[in-house]
Design a protein that fits this description.
Elements (H helix, E strand, L loop, with lengths): L5 H15 L4 H52 L8 H4 L19 E2 L6 E2 L28 H5 L9
Length: 159
């Protein structure tokens, strides 16, 4: 950005030492450092804002291109007409309609034993049983549990 050579920087340091003096030079350098830091922060924010605007404009441009491409594809390959919802509705049997046809479950053949087995309905499959745990009797309101009644009190613990 600024093209400063080391000899020019040395010349500025010598002039600053002569003009400001060795006693106030650290305070002046701290002051200059704070202002340089603020300037860098402002330039960083400005650069980030510019980058954000560029990204947003590129994104808007890409969205326009995608919309145009999508429109072109939809024109070339129109979507087939969907059936109306009335065709998908469940038909309610009317008087005079034939009753539904009942079909037996197919036989399942065991490959290993090669003996036919009957198809089992979901209700016929046995579920594994869990052991029962005894339920505790509900405690009376305001009653102290039996462990608290019989617990020994240590000397000096609660006074």
């Amino acid at each position: 950005m600024f093209n400063v050579d080391p000899t020019e920087l040395l010349l500025v340091a010598i002039v600053a030492l002569l003009v400001i003096g060795p006693k106030d030079l650290p305070r002046a350098m701290r002051f200059v450092g704070k202002w340089v830091g603020k300037a860098r922060g402002i330039s960083r924010q400005f650069r980030a804002g510019i980058d954000t605007m560029i990204r947003e404009s590129e994104l808007a441009e890409m969205e326009k291109q995608w919309a145009a491409e999508n429109e072109r594809i939809m024109r070339e390959h129109p979507a087939p007409a969907l059936p109306s919802p009335e065709h998908d509705a469940v038909t309610v049997p009317q008087e005079g309609d034939a009753p539904p046809v009942m079909v037996e479950q197919p036989m399942i053949h065991d490959v290993v034993a090669e003996e036919p087995q009957l198809a089992l309905e979901p209700a016929a499959v046995a579920k594994p049983k869990r052991p029962r745990t005894p339920k505790a009797a509900p405690a009376e309101a305001g009653a102290v549990p039996s462990e608290a009644k019989t617990a020994p009190v240590e000397d000096g613990a609660a006074s």
